């Protein structure tokens, strides 16, 4: 039952992260772009997490070694690239399609865990993933869409975000549990902002977009889409493992599609609703299986 706390944290983080594609796409109508948004989102989050980490350092024990520090910077680079690629993708394709492609991390992560760490997925995990894949196809309305309506550039950006997200999840689960989550989250966002600045410095250093309206968007996205989810993931993923975390985080799909319907007025049909139900049912079944197994 102790793991239920961490299961809820990862689930909540995925829910919050799922809203981002719609709000980021909405910010594009204000004249902003993925490079600007993703960097400042990470940078502001790093500042907020740093303030909290240093304000609580006397009350919570935890040691950050140089090796862990470098590894966390790498982990942050992975989530930074995920956000950038994902945000770029929604400028070319719908938010619904982008999240469907991002969801491929579900089986990417299990596959990489198997290939790299020899951690063979259980039969229930494989069955659940198969249902999730069916649900993603239905929820993303892939079967009803015309292939020539897709932007290949957008699809490649979304696929890249899925691959880097897989790296982030696996890396996050492998960080030493002795590192407190406040420090872990702060360093992850430092790595994210450093990575994004290194690849987009020319755009970021332009002062044309820096105004009150932009920083309102950046702060909102930093808090809702980065600071809180990063803290939840940093605390929860290492406790419950990459397998169940990758399953739980698929909640981003139904959340993203529902949010796209409300915020962006994207159409959602009956087939998509069925797909969402299949995904939610699969997540609940997997949670029940994990909790039941832990009691045995």
UniProtKB/TrEMBL annotation:
Protein location: Cell membrane
Alphabetized UniProt keyword annotations: Cell membrane, Membrane, Transmembrane, Transmembrane helix
Matching InterPro entries: AA-Vitamin_Transporters, EamA_dom, EmrE-like
Organism: Bacteroides intestinalis
Membrane topology: Multi-pass membrane protein
A Gene Ontology cellular-component term: plasma membrane
The protein's name in its UniProt record: DMT family transporter
Pfam hit, one: EamA
Main location: membrane
């Amino acid at each position: 039952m102790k793991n239920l706390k961490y299961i809820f944290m990862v689930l909540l983080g995925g829910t919050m992260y799922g809203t981002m594609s719609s709000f980021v796409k909405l910010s594009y109508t204000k004249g902003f772009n993925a490079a600007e948004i993703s960097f400042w989102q990470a940078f502001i989050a790093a500042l907020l997490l740093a303030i909290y980490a240093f304000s609580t350092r006397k009350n919570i024990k935890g040691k950050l070694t140089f090796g862990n520090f470098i590894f966390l910077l790498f982990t942050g680079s992975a989530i930074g690239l995920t956000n950038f690629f994902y945000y770029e993708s929604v400028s070319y394709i719908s938010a619904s399609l982008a999240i469907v492609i991002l969801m491929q991390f579900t089986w990417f992560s299990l596959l990489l865990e198997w290939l790299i760490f020899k951690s063979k997925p259980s039969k229930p995990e494989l069955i659940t993933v198969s249902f999730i894949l069916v649900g993603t196809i239905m929820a993303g309305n892939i079967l009803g869409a015309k292939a020539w309506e897709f932007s290949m550039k957008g699809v490649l950006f979304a696929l890249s975000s899925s691959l880097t997200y897989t790296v982030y999840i696996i890396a996050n689960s492998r960080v030493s549990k002795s590192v407190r989550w406040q420090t872990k989250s702060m360093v992850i966002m430092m790595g994210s902002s450093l990575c994004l600045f290194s690849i987009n410095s020319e755009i970021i250093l332009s002062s044309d977009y820096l105004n009150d309206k932009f920083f309102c968007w950046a702060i909102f996205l930093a808090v809702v889409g980065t600071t809180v989810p990063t803290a939840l993931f940093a605390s929860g993923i290492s406790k419950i493992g990459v397998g169940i975390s990758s399953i739980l985080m698929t909640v981003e799909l139904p959340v993203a599609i529902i949010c796209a319907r409300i915020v962006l007025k994207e159409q959602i049909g009956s087939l998509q609703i069925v797909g969402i139900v299949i995904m939610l049912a699969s997540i609940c079944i997997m949670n029940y299986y994990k909790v039941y197994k832990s009691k045995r």
